[in-house]
Fold this protein.
Amino acid sequence: MADNSEQNQQLIRCMQIPIENGILLLPQTMIAEILPFVVYDSVEEGAPKWFVGLFKWQRMNIPLISLDILHGEDINYGKKLRAVILNTLTADSGYDYIGVVMKGIPKMIEVREDNIQAEVENLKKGIIMNAQLDGTDYMIPDIDALEYLTRKAVKFTEH
């Protein structure tokens, strides 16, 4: 029989989102949709390489970013990509959603306070925290930072 403290711990439903250089861990409430593929329009020459382009979703233009390229990976994507659409927190980017390039199949997991260890050292750009859960390493994206970077990239492409 489980003790009371175990029963009282809040479970957070999260999604493991695989990218080229690791696995993102996001609360399920941050995810608007996971798309098996998107066809995107490239942005102007000179835009940051991690700003892959824009794609249509529910009659809106959604910016598509690559955390792998933001982290320094040299990746040349084809025209069809898997993407996870994230809800933004403030819409400061000018968008209610941001698309993030993903690789592979996402997986739902439940996270409890006692089965996750957080680390805030050696963070990559756009990552607010590294975490380890049941022996697997994760990166937790900094949605505010991604909104800020996206806003700057979109403004660049509008000029």
